Amino acid sequence: xxxxxxxxxxxxxxxxxxxxxxxxxxxxLIGTSAVIVMFSLGIGMNIxxxxxxxxxxxxxxxxxxxxxxxxxxNDVAPxxxxxxxxxxxxDIKHVRSATPFYRNIRSGEQVAVYTxxxxxxxxxxxxxxxxxxxxxxxxxxxxxxxKQAGDPPTTVLFGxxxxxxxxxxxxxxxxxxxxxxxxxxxxxxxxxxFFAEELRIIPLTMTAxxxxxxxxDYSVIGSKTxxxxxxxxxxxLIGIIDAxxxxxxxxxxxxxxxxxxxxxxxxxxxLNAENQMPEFDGIYNEARVRVDDMNNVPAVEAELKAMGxxxxxxxxxxxxxxxxxxxxxxxxxxxxxxxxxxAAMNITNTMIMAIIERTKEIGIMxxxxxxxxxxxxxxxxxxxxxxxxxGVAGIVLSYGISLIINNFLGQFFMDMFNYGNMGEEKxxxxxxxxxxxxxxxxxxxxxxxxxxxxxxxxxxxxxALSAIAHE
Length: 471
Known about the structure:
This protein is of the alpha+beta class. The protein folds into two domains: 207 residues, no CATH class; 182 residues, no CATH class. Helix content is 46%, strand content 19%. It is built from eleven helices and 22 strands. A six-stranded mixed β-sheet has the order 5-8-20-10-19-9. A four-stranded antiparallel β-sheet has the order 4-21-1-22. α7 packs antiparallel against α9. The longest helix has 45 residues. It is elongated, with a radius of gyration of 36 Å.
């Protein structure tokens, strides 16, 4: 008996009992589609979690700080975060760049960044960094350029929303950016082109009011006799960073080299003996590390912690949420696997019935000298064909269910598992990659073969003479 004869016989026997075959295939169909849909939900939810977190923060960035932490009864202090230490972070495998992130003065509070016609940038957070590392760090520019050799120490980069709130200390009036209040996106800025303005920086003098609070004294700006004037400097704005919406610090910040920022803090303290700020002593309290890929973040984070630092990223949250989804996915897949087990038992039962009905046929094949292994293969082929057909039908049904979930139930599932609102974006919560469909089809076929092993072995043990005499 040739292979083609075996295949032809298998198909003929399956079509001979159409209703039985359809019912058996249906069991495999239900089990296969249930498993595919359960795994597709896990895959889709992980994709949506990653998208959601990417909107909140950069998943390739690690924050390093030097806050003390408790290990049992011991108070552990991380090593000093110096320039030498931060630059050594770049030697860690998969680290793309590292820079301090020093924030403790703002425009409109300790210092004033102002224009010649009296407009002062309010709430502009100064961020002391390595300006020569920002391009390697992954930042891109909307316009302008990054710092180059020969640029003065007062060189700065603005974020796209730096200057969204302005105060005119000459006319005592405010000017705010125009926004789309639904999306919070800026439509127009009070000053559209800061490059055309002469920008200056000066430390402010704080004066105590009648209630004991310190108020900013704007009258010293532009005064030839004020002690502040010796610290008045022109800022060299060279670019606007194209910061994404999730990087709010970069969107509103003023990036500057630490050397000049330290001088401004010192100048402020010289002018405000009663309202001092901590001066920079060469030790940072925070740094940022950029990793080449979010999948490498846990390894880099572990190495930073091994060095004694506190290190964290939003990738930790992603891992926790992914683990939560994985647990749910396995529970649902286990339930779906029960239906596959029932389908396998049904295949076994169907094949046993087929052997009983075809006992005489088996006996005739043996008397005619048919190889026993070919008889076994014929019944295994029938079982495998049932699994294969059920797998194909299950894949088709799975894509249909996936379509319904993505079009009608996506946000419902996100709400059910408390993973937030994805806005107006269409949620593809059920994702069936090609490998999942292929593995499911192979698994259904394999289950059919395994379920047919016992009936197939039973068929070859039947005596030829008793089989011929069987009615």
